[in-house]
Protein backbone atom coordinates (compact mmCIF):
# COMPACT_ATOMS: atom_id res chain seq x y z
CA UNK A 1 0.00 0.00 0.00
CA UNK A 2 1.38 3.33 -1.05
CA UNK A 3 0.57 6.35 1.02
CA UNK A 4 2.52 9.51 1.46
CA UNK A 5 1.88 12.71 3.29
CA UNK A 6 2.76 15.49 0.95
CA UNK A 7 2.17 19.05 0.15
CA UNK A 8 -0.64 18.80 -2.42
CA UNK A 9 1.26 21.09 -4.79
CA UNK A 10 3.48 18.09 -5.44
CA UNK A 11 0.67 15.93 -6.82
CA UNK A 12 1.73 16.90 -10.34
CA UNK A 13 4.09 13.98 -10.41
CA UNK A 14 1.20 11.56 -10.89
CA UNK A 15 0.58 11.21 -14.58
CA UNK A 16 -3.14 10.81 -15.20
CA UNK A 17 -4.10 7.59 -16.91
CA UNK A 18 -4.81 7.64 -20.60
CA UNK A 19 -8.15 5.83 -20.50
CA UNK A 20 -11.08 8.20 -20.02
CA UNK A 21 -12.41 7.29 -16.57
CA UNK A 22 -15.72 8.66 -15.38
CA UNK A 23 -15.44 10.88 -12.33
CA UNK A 24 -18.34 11.86 -10.13
CA UNK A 25 -20.73 14.68 -10.90
CA UNK A 26 -20.89 17.11 -8.02
CA UNK A 27 -19.23 19.79 -5.94
CA UNK A 28 -15.65 19.00 -4.94
CA UNK A 29 -13.50 20.87 -2.46
CA UNK A 30 -10.06 21.72 -3.89
CA UNK A 31 -8.64 22.86 -0.56
CA UNK A 32 -8.26 26.03 1.44
CA UNK A 33 -8.79 29.06 -0.75
CA UNK A 34 -5.86 30.94 0.77
CA UNK A 35 -3.60 28.40 -0.96
CA UNK A 36 -4.78 29.80 -4.28
CA UNK A 37 -4.91 33.43 -3.20
CA UNK A 38 -1.63 34.65 -4.60
CA UNK A 39 -2.27 36.14 -8.02
CA UNK A 40 -1.43 33.92 -10.96
CA UNK A 41 -1.96 30.31 -11.95
CA UNK A 42 -1.86 27.37 -9.55
CA UNK A 43 -1.96 23.91 -11.01
CA UNK A 44 -2.98 20.54 -9.60
CA UNK A 45 -4.05 17.16 -10.91
CA UNK A 46 -7.71 16.28 -10.57
CA UNK A 47 -10.35 14.32 -12.50
CA UNK A 48 -7.61 12.71 -14.56
CA UNK A 49 -6.63 16.11 -15.95
CA UNK A 50 -4.49 19.08 -15.16
CA UNK A 51 -6.51 21.73 -13.37
CA UNK A 52 -5.43 25.35 -13.23
CA UNK A 53 -6.71 27.73 -10.61
CA UNK A 54 -6.35 31.31 -11.85
CA UNK A 55 -6.38 33.87 -9.08
CA UNK A 56 -7.02 37.58 -9.38
CA UNK A 57 -7.05 40.34 -6.79
CA UNK A 58 -10.55 40.92 -5.33
CA UNK A 59 -12.41 38.37 -7.47
CA UNK A 60 -13.12 34.69 -7.04
CA UNK A 61 -10.61 32.37 -8.65
CA UNK A 62 -11.39 30.64 -11.95
CA UNK A 63 -10.94 26.89 -12.19
CA UNK A 64 -9.88 25.60 -15.60
CA UNK A 65 -9.76 21.95 -16.65
CA UNK A 66 -7.36 21.02 -19.44
CA UNK A 67 -9.29 19.03 -22.03
CA UNK A 68 -7.58 17.78 -25.18
CA UNK A 69 -7.32 20.82 -27.41
CA UNK A 70 -9.03 23.30 -25.12
CA UNK A 71 -9.62 24.49 -21.58
CA UNK A 72 -13.01 24.07 -19.88
CA UNK A 73 -13.98 26.37 -17.05
CA UNK A 74 -15.57 24.68 -14.04
CA UNK A 75 -18.15 26.58 -11.98
CA UNK A 76 -16.45 27.47 -8.69
CA UNK A 77 -17.01 29.42 -5.51
CA UNK A 78 -15.32 30.25 -2.22
CA UNK A 79 -17.07 29.66 1.09
CA UNK A 80 -15.90 29.23 4.68
CA UNK A 81 -12.33 29.72 3.51
CA UNK A 82 -12.54 26.83 1.02
CA UNK A 83 -12.54 26.61 -2.76
CA UNK A 84 -15.21 24.41 -4.36
CA UNK A 85 -15.48 23.38 -8.01
CA UNK A 86 -18.37 21.72 -9.86
CA UNK A 87 -17.37 18.71 -11.94
CA UNK A 88 -19.89 17.28 -14.41
CA UNK A 89 -18.90 15.03 -17.32
CA UNK A 90 -22.03 16.32 -19.13
CA UNK A 91 -20.89 19.91 -18.53
CA UNK A 92 -24.25 21.08 -17.19
CA UNK A 93 -24.35 23.95 -14.66
CA UNK A 94 -24.79 23.04 -10.98
CA UNK A 95 -28.44 22.92 -9.82
CA UNK A 96 -29.02 25.37 -6.95
CA UNK A 97 -30.44 22.74 -4.56
CA UNK A 98 -27.13 20.85 -4.58
CA UNK A 99 -25.17 23.71 -3.04
CA UNK A 100 -22.84 23.10 -0.10
CA UNK A 101 -24.30 24.69 3.07
CA UNK A 102 -22.41 27.48 4.74
CA UNK A 103 -20.89 26.23 7.99
CA UNK A 104 -20.19 29.33 10.01
CA UNK A 105 -23.52 31.06 9.44
CA UNK A 106 -23.92 34.65 10.45
CA UNK A 107 -22.18 34.35 13.80
CA UNK A 108 -18.99 33.68 11.89
CA UNK A 109 -15.45 33.49 13.05
CA UNK A 110 -14.53 36.95 14.08
CA UNK A 111 -17.48 38.33 15.93
CA UNK A 112 -16.27 40.56 18.71
CA UNK A 113 -18.18 39.01 21.60
CA UNK A 114 -18.97 35.49 22.64
CA UNK A 115 -17.78 32.27 21.12
CA UNK A 116 -17.06 32.03 17.42
CA UNK A 117 -15.33 29.50 15.26
CA UNK A 118 -11.61 28.97 15.19
CA UNK A 119 -9.79 28.92 11.87
CA UNK A 120 -9.53 25.61 10.06
CA UNK A 121 -6.94 23.17 11.21
CA UNK A 122 -6.36 21.58 7.83
CA UNK A 123 -4.64 18.37 6.72
CA UNK A 124 -4.28 16.71 3.32
CA UNK A 125 -2.91 13.41 2.17
CA UNK A 126 -2.76 11.35 -1.01
CA UNK A 127 -4.34 7.91 -0.93
CA UNK A 128 -3.98 5.07 -3.39
CA UNK A 129 -7.67 4.26 -3.39
CA UNK A 130 -10.84 4.81 -5.33
CA UNK A 131 -13.19 7.51 -4.15
CA UNK A 132 -15.99 5.06 -3.31
CA UNK A 133 -13.75 3.34 -0.80
CA UNK A 134 -13.39 6.56 1.16
CA UNK A 135 -17.10 7.30 1.01
CA UNK A 136 -17.95 3.87 2.48
CA UNK A 137 -16.44 5.05 5.72
CA UNK A 138 -19.79 6.71 6.39
CA UNK A 139 -21.63 3.42 6.90
CA UNK A 140 -18.95 1.23 8.41
CA UNK A 141 -19.25 2.52 11.93
CA UNK A 142 -22.17 0.39 13.11
CA UNK A 143 -20.57 -3.01 12.74
CA UNK A 144 -16.92 -2.11 12.96
CA UNK A 145 -14.33 -1.88 15.65
CA UNK A 146 -15.22 1.77 16.16
CA UNK A 147 -17.90 0.54 18.49
CA UNK A 148 -17.15 -1.45 21.60
CA UNK A 149 -19.62 -4.29 22.06
CA UNK A 150 -22.10 -3.71 24.84
CA UNK A 151 -21.87 0.05 24.89
CA UNK A 152 -25.17 1.89 24.54
CA UNK A 153 -25.24 3.27 21.07
CA UNK A 154 -27.39 5.16 18.65
CA UNK A 155 -26.35 4.95 15.02
CA UNK A 156 -28.31 5.82 11.92
CA UNK A 157 -27.68 6.29 8.22
CA UNK A 158 -30.18 8.21 6.13
CA UNK A 159 -29.87 8.36 2.34
CA UNK A 160 -32.11 10.78 0.49
CA UNK A 161 -31.58 12.69 -2.73
CA UNK A 162 -27.98 13.87 -2.99
CA UNK A 163 -27.40 13.66 0.77
CA UNK A 164 -26.19 10.76 2.90
CA UNK A 165 -26.24 11.37 6.64
CA UNK A 166 -24.82 9.54 9.63
CA UNK A 167 -26.05 10.00 13.18
CA UNK A 168 -23.87 8.68 15.98
CA UNK A 169 -24.18 8.87 19.72
CA UNK A 170 -22.05 6.77 21.99
CA UNK A 171 -18.57 6.28 23.36
CA UNK A 172 -15.83 7.21 20.93
CA UNK A 173 -13.59 4.39 19.79
CA UNK A 174 -9.94 4.68 20.74
CA UNK A 175 -8.86 5.11 17.11
CA UNK A 176 -10.50 8.53 17.14
CA UNK A 177 -8.97 9.56 20.47
CA UNK A 178 -6.11 12.01 20.36
CA UNK A 179 -2.87 10.06 20.32
CA UNK A 180 -0.73 13.00 21.28
CA UNK A 181 -3.03 15.11 23.39
CA UNK A 182 -1.97 18.45 24.75
CA UNK A 183 -0.39 18.18 28.23
CA UNK A 184 -3.71 18.98 29.88
CA UNK A 185 -5.70 17.22 27.14
CA UNK A 186 -8.62 15.12 28.23
CA UNK A 187 -10.07 11.85 26.94
CA UNK A 188 -13.25 12.05 24.90
CA UNK A 189 -15.89 10.17 26.89
CA UNK A 190 -18.91 10.50 24.64
CA UNK A 191 -19.51 11.70 21.13
CA UNK A 192 -22.66 12.99 19.52
CA UNK A 193 -22.17 13.64 15.86
CA UNK A 194 -24.23 14.22 12.73
CA UNK A 195 -22.38 14.07 9.43
CA UNK A 196 -23.68 14.51 5.89
CA UNK A 197 -22.22 13.99 2.48
CA UNK A 198 -23.50 16.75 0.22
CA UNK A 199 -23.04 15.01 -3.09
CA UNK A 200 -20.19 12.58 -3.76
CA UNK A 201 -17.20 14.27 -2.19
CA UNK A 202 -17.89 16.80 0.56
CA UNK A 203 -18.87 15.75 4.07
CA UNK A 204 -19.69 18.13 6.89
CA UNK A 205 -19.80 16.76 10.45
CA UNK A 206 -21.23 18.59 13.43
CA UNK A 207 -19.75 17.17 16.61
CA UNK A 208 -20.35 17.46 20.32
CA UNK A 209 -17.66 15.78 22.37
CA UNK A 210 -17.97 15.30 26.09
CA UNK A 211 -14.49 15.35 27.58
CA UNK A 212 -13.49 14.60 31.14
CA UNK A 213 -13.43 18.26 32.07
CA UNK A 214 -15.64 20.04 29.52
CA UNK A 215 -17.47 19.70 26.25
CA UNK A 216 -16.19 20.54 22.78
CA UNK A 217 -18.25 21.78 19.89
CA UNK A 218 -16.59 21.15 16.55
CA UNK A 219 -17.23 21.06 12.82
CA UNK A 220 -15.23 18.65 10.70
CA UNK A 221 -15.07 18.86 6.93
CA UNK A 222 -13.93 15.70 5.17
CA UNK A 223 -13.52 15.97 1.42
CA UNK A 224 -11.69 14.36 -1.43
CA UNK A 225 -11.12 14.81 -5.12
CA UNK A 226 -9.84 12.17 -7.53
CA UNK A 227 -6.39 12.68 -9.03
CA UNK A 228 -7.02 9.80 -11.39
CA UNK A 229 -8.80 6.46 -11.12
CA UNK A 230 -6.38 5.08 -8.54
CA UNK A 231 -5.35 8.11 -6.51
CA UNK A 232 -7.16 10.76 -4.59
CA UNK A 233 -6.47 13.68 -2.30
CA UNK A 234 -8.14 13.30 1.08
CA UNK A 235 -8.61 16.43 3.19
CA UNK A 236 -9.85 17.01 6.70
CA UNK A 237 -10.43 20.32 8.40
CA UNK A 238 -11.52 20.93 11.96
CA UNK A 239 -13.05 24.09 13.40
CA UNK A 240 -13.85 24.39 17.08
CA UNK A 241 -16.16 26.82 18.82
CA UNK A 242 -14.06 29.04 20.98
CA UNK A 243 -13.94 32.35 22.76
CA UNK A 244 -12.32 35.17 20.81
CA UNK A 245 -9.40 35.45 20.74
CA UNK A 246 -9.16 31.69 20.33
CA UNK A 247 -8.14 29.64 23.32
CA UNK A 248 -4.65 28.26 22.45
CA UNK A 249 -5.45 24.93 24.06
CA UNK A 250 -8.55 24.51 21.92
CA UNK A 251 -6.51 25.32 18.82
CA UNK A 252 -4.14 22.53 19.77
CA UNK A 253 -7.08 20.17 20.28
CA UNK A 254 -8.44 21.06 16.83
CA UNK A 255 -5.07 20.49 15.17
CA UNK A 256 -4.61 17.17 16.96
CA UNK A 257 -8.11 16.06 16.11
CA UNK A 258 -7.72 16.94 12.45
CA UNK A 259 -4.61 14.75 12.25
CA UNK A 260 -6.36 11.98 14.15
CA UNK A 261 -9.43 11.92 11.91
CA UNK A 262 -7.30 11.86 8.78
CA UNK A 263 -5.22 9.02 10.23
CA UNK A 264 -8.30 7.09 11.31
CA UNK A 265 -10.02 7.32 7.91
CA UNK A 266 -6.77 6.48 6.14
CA UNK A 267 -6.20 3.44 8.36
CA UNK A 268 -9.81 2.31 7.92
CA UNK A 269 -9.54 2.55 4.12
CA UNK A 270 -6.24 0.68 4.16
CA UNK A 271 -7.41 -2.14 6.41
CA UNK A 272 -10.59 -2.50 4.36
CA UNK A 273 -8.61 -2.73 1.13
CA UNK A 274 -6.49 -5.37 2.81
CA UNK A 275 -9.52 -7.29 4.07
CA UNK A 276 -11.34 -7.17 0.76
CA UNK A 277 -8.34 -8.90 -0.78
CA UNK A 278 -8.83 -11.68 1.76
CA UNK A 279 -12.04 -13.16 3.08
CA UNK A 280 -14.59 -10.49 2.16
CA UNK A 281 -14.00 -10.63 -1.56
CA UNK A 282 -16.78 -13.06 -2.46
CA UNK A 283 -19.42 -11.52 -0.20
CA UNK A 284 -22.23 -9.46 -1.61
CA UNK A 285 -23.88 -7.28 1.02
CA UNK A 286 -27.64 -7.77 1.52
CA UNK A 287 -29.84 -5.29 -0.32
CA UNK A 288 -31.05 -3.77 2.97
CA UNK A 289 -27.53 -3.34 4.36
CA UNK A 290 -26.11 0.15 4.73
CA UNK A 291 -23.23 -0.69 2.39
CA UNK A 292 -25.64 -1.67 -0.39
CA UNK A 293 -27.74 1.43 0.28
CA UNK A 294 -24.65 3.62 0.12
CA UNK A 295 -23.56 2.07 -3.16
CA UNK A 296 -27.02 2.63 -4.71
CA UNK A 297 -26.94 6.24 -3.52
CA UNK A 298 -23.35 6.82 -4.67
CA UNK A 299 -24.20 5.44 -8.11
CA UNK A 300 -26.33 8.50 -8.94
CA UNK A 301 -23.16 10.59 -9.33
CA UNK A 302 -21.74 8.33 -12.01
CA UNK A 303 -24.65 8.19 -14.44
CA UNK A 304 -26.05 10.95 -16.65
CA UNK A 305 -28.44 13.19 -14.72
CA UNK A 306 -31.28 11.85 -16.89
CA UNK A 307 -30.55 8.29 -15.77
CA UNK A 308 -30.73 8.96 -12.03
CA UNK A 309 -33.64 6.82 -10.79
CA UNK A 310 -35.66 6.64 -7.57
CA UNK A 311 -33.77 3.56 -6.41
CA UNK A 312 -30.71 5.79 -6.02
CA UNK A 313 -32.41 8.75 -4.38
CA UNK A 314 -35.42 7.44 -2.41
CA UNK A 315 -35.11 7.83 1.34
CA UNK A 316 -33.56 4.81 3.05
CA UNK A 317 -32.91 4.59 6.78
CA UNK A 318 -30.65 2.15 8.62
CA UNK A 319 -30.76 2.42 12.38
CA UNK A 320 -29.09 0.68 15.30
CA UNK A 321 -30.43 1.74 18.68
CA UNK A 322 -29.40 -0.17 21.78
CA UNK A 323 -30.66 2.51 24.15
CA UNK A 324 -34.26 1.21 24.15
CA UNK A 325 -34.39 -2.54 24.93
CA UNK A 326 -37.67 -4.28 24.14
CA UNK A 327 -38.77 -4.73 27.75
CA UNK A 328 -38.12 -1.07 28.44
CA UNK A 329 -40.12 -0.09 25.37
CA UNK A 330 -43.18 -2.18 26.29
CA UNK A 331 -43.52 -0.37 29.61
CA UNK A 332 -42.12 3.03 28.72
CA UNK A 333 -43.94 6.30 29.01
CA UNK A 334 -42.52 7.34 25.63
CA UNK A 335 -44.48 4.56 23.99
CA UNK A 336 -47.69 5.46 25.83
CA UNK A 337 -47.37 9.13 25.00
CA UNK A 338 -47.01 8.41 21.31
CA UNK A 339 -49.80 5.82 21.23
CA UNK A 340 -52.15 7.99 23.30
CA UNK A 341 -51.69 10.81 20.85
CA UNK A 342 -52.31 8.41 17.99
CA UNK A 343 -55.32 6.61 19.43
CA UNK A 344 -56.78 9.52 21.37
CA UNK A 345 -57.09 7.51 24.57
CA UNK A 346 -55.10 6.34 27.56
CA UNK A 347 -53.66 2.87 27.24
CA UNK A 348 -53.62 0.35 30.02
CA UNK B 1 -55.14 -3.09 15.12
CA UNK B 2 -52.14 -4.48 13.35
CA UNK B 3 -49.74 -2.11 11.65
CA UNK B 4 -48.88 -4.61 9.01
CA UNK B 5 -50.50 -5.65 5.76
CA UNK B 6 -50.16 -9.39 5.72
CA UNK B 7 -52.05 -9.80 2.45
CA UNK B 8 -49.80 -7.51 0.44
CA UNK B 9 -46.60 -9.06 1.62
CA UNK B 10 -46.07 -11.40 -1.26
CA UNK B 11 -46.71 -8.76 -3.92
CA UNK B 12 -44.50 -6.04 -2.59
CA UNK B 13 -41.18 -5.34 -4.25
CA UNK B 14 -38.45 -5.66 -1.69
CA UNK B 15 -39.88 -8.71 0.05
CA UNK B 16 -37.20 -10.85 -1.52
CA UNK B 17 -34.80 -8.93 0.70
CA UNK B 18 -36.90 -9.75 3.77
CA UNK B 19 -38.53 -6.34 3.92
CA UNK B 20 -42.11 -6.24 5.16
CA UNK B 21 -44.65 -3.44 4.72
CA UNK B 22 -45.62 -1.45 7.82
CA UNK B 23 -48.25 1.26 8.00
CA UNK B 24 -47.83 4.30 10.20
CA UNK B 25 -50.66 4.65 12.71
CA UNK B 26 -50.86 8.42 12.21
CA UNK B 27 -51.02 8.97 8.46
CA UNK B 28 -51.37 5.45 7.01
CA UNK B 29 -48.26 5.89 4.93
CA UNK B 30 -46.72 2.55 4.06
CA UNK B 31 -43.01 1.80 4.12
CA UNK B 32 -40.92 -1.35 3.78
CA UNK B 33 -39.20 -2.43 6.97
CA UNK B 34 -36.64 -5.02 7.90
CA UNK B 35 -35.62 -5.62 11.47
CA UNK B 36 -32.74 -8.06 11.79
CA UNK B 37 -32.79 -7.85 15.59
CA UNK B 38 -34.76 -5.67 18.00
CA UNK B 39 -32.12 -2.95 18.02
CA UNK B 40 -31.71 -2.76 14.22
CA UNK B 41 -34.20 -1.30 11.76
CA UNK B 42 -34.05 -0.59 8.03
CA UNK B 43 -36.79 1.55 6.48
CA UNK B 44 -37.32 2.07 2.77
CA UNK B 45 -39.46 5.03 1.80
CA UNK B 46 -40.99 5.92 -1.52
CA UNK B 47 -41.77 9.44 -2.68
CA UNK B 48 -45.50 8.80 -2.17
CA UNK B 49 -44.90 7.56 1.38
CA UNK B 50 -42.89 10.70 2.19
CA UNK B 51 -45.69 12.90 0.83
CA UNK B 52 -48.13 11.25 3.25
CA UNK B 53 -45.98 11.69 6.37
CA UNK B 54 -47.52 14.29 8.69
CA UNK B 55 -44.60 14.57 11.06
CA UNK B 56 -42.06 15.74 8.53
CA UNK B 57 -43.76 18.95 7.36
CA UNK B 58 -44.19 19.94 11.02
CA UNK B 59 -40.44 19.85 11.63
CA UNK B 60 -38.25 22.81 10.75
CA UNK B 61 -35.78 21.44 8.24
CA UNK B 62 -32.48 22.87 7.13
CA UNK B 63 -29.57 21.70 5.05
CA UNK B 64 -26.83 21.44 7.68
CA UNK B 65 -26.55 17.93 9.16
CA UNK B 66 -28.18 18.73 12.51
CA UNK B 67 -31.06 20.56 10.82
CA UNK B 68 -32.20 17.63 8.69
CA UNK B 69 -35.22 15.39 9.33
CA UNK B 70 -33.98 12.43 11.39
CA UNK B 71 -37.07 10.28 10.94
CA UNK B 72 -40.74 9.88 11.85
CA UNK B 73 -41.11 9.10 15.57
CA UNK B 74 -44.70 7.89 15.17
CA UNK B 75 -43.62 5.41 12.52
CA UNK B 76 -40.75 4.33 14.77
CA UNK B 77 -43.25 3.58 17.55
CA UNK B 78 -45.51 1.72 15.10
CA UNK B 79 -42.59 -0.45 13.96
CA UNK B 80 -41.62 -1.25 17.55
CA UNK B 81 -45.20 -2.17 18.42
CA UNK B 82 -45.56 -4.34 15.32
CA UNK B 83 -42.46 -6.17 16.52
CA UNK B 84 -43.75 -6.56 20.08
CA UNK B 85 -47.06 -7.90 18.73
CA UNK B 86 -45.20 -10.31 16.50
CA UNK B 87 -46.70 -9.04 13.25
CA UNK B 88 -43.27 -7.79 12.15
CA UNK B 89 -40.81 -10.66 12.27
CA UNK B 90 -37.18 -10.29 13.20
CA UNK B 91 -35.12 -11.47 10.24
CA UNK B 92 -32.36 -12.87 12.43
CA UNK B 93 -34.47 -15.05 14.78
CA UNK B 94 -31.54 -16.62 16.57
CA UNK B 95 -30.05 -13.36 17.69
CA UNK B 96 -30.97 -11.95 21.11
Automatic annotation (TrEMBL), chain A:
Gene3D superfamilies reported for this sequence: Naphthalene 1,2-dioxygenase Alpha Subunit, Chain A, domain 1 (3.90.380.10)
Pfam family, one: KshA_C
Enzyme type, top EC level: oxidoreductase
Residue span(s) of domain 3-ketosteroid-9-alpha-monooxygenase oxygenase component-like C-terminal: 86-302
GO terms assigned for molecular function: oxidoreductase activity
Protein name: 3-ketosteroid-9-alpha-hydroxylase oxygenase subunit
InterPro entries, per the entry: KshA-like_C
Superkingdom, natural source: Bacteria
Record field: transmembrane: none
The keyword Nucleus is assigned to this record: no
GO biological process, one term: cholesterol metabolic process
The EC number(s) this enzyme carries: 1.17.1.-
Entry keyword set: Oxidoreductase
UniProtKB/TrEMBL annotation, chain B:
Region Disordered, residue ranges: 1-20
Chain intervals with Basic and acidic residues compositional bias: 1-10
Top-rank taxon, per record: Bacteria
Record-given protein name: Ferredoxin
Amino acid sequence: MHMVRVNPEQTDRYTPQASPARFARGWHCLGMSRRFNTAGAHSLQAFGRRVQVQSYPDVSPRVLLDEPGHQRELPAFEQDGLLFAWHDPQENPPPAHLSIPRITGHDAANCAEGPGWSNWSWKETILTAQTGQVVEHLVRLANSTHVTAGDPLYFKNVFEGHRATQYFEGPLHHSYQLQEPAPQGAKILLANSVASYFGPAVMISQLDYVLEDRSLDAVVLTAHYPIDEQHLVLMTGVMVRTEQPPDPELKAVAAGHSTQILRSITNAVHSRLQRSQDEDSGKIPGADSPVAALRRWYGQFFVDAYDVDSGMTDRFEYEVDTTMPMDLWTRSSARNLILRRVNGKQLA
Amino acid sequence: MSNIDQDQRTETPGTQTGMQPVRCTECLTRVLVRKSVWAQTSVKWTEEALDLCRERPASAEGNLPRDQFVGCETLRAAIRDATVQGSLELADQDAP
